[in-house]
Amino acid sequence: xxxxxxxxxxxxxxxxxxxxxxxxxxxxxxxxxxxxxxxxxxxxxxxxxxxxxxxxxxxxxxxxxxxxxxxxxxxxxxxxxxxxxxxxxxxxxxxxxxxxxxxxxxxxxxxxxxxxxxxxxxxxxxxxxxxxxxxxxxxxxxxxxxxxxxxxxxxxxxxxxxxxxxxxxxxxxxxxxxxxxxxxxxxxxxxxxxxxxxxxxxxxxxxxxxxxxxxxxxxxxxxxxxxxxxxxxxxxxxxxxxx
Length: 243
Description:
Layout: H1 5-8, H2 14-22, H3 25-63, H4 69-86, H5 98-122, H6 129-146, H7 155-158, H8 160-183, H9 198-212, H10 222-241
Helix pairs in contact: 3-4, 5-6, 5-8, 6-8
């Protein structure tokens, strides 16, 4: 069945078109089932992770500080489907397809968040500069998403891939400037705020006991090693295999 020319303008159509035209019936069903399984896995994992973060860092910290574990588990379970269904609110805005919208969304929100994590790990920037740098990066990303893609607009506002680099530089630059001129650099011996009471304090103590009981200190480097491996695989797939 032919596809309308307007539909072919969307990047989301390319993969289903290849599956339909090149694969036999049996493999087509298998690929569709795999895509559906991967989609469900991604959405439920993201929803449960966001629900856990909201339960711990917002609800347990600001609203209900000293409840039982079963209470916070119930709150997390209630939030998960709410977040899952709310995550489809972007569907009416998919004029150019989900792929292009996802690229813009990652550049607007995920890249600044990744930047403040990297800056906090590898540099002595002040922790109070994080939310200001994040705000600057998100504002730039939102402006870029709302800017019409026309020939007279600068590439820094219309090219999503260039926007990734600009977003990282803007977020990191704001954090460095604030640390240098306003807040000062974070000293290694500075103590961050700790939750000494309530459920958060108890859960923190339990985690510290688990860390102290680990038999091999080399395991603490395992997440970084795995992260480097994942980044390397992503770069090879992006710039070698699929370039």
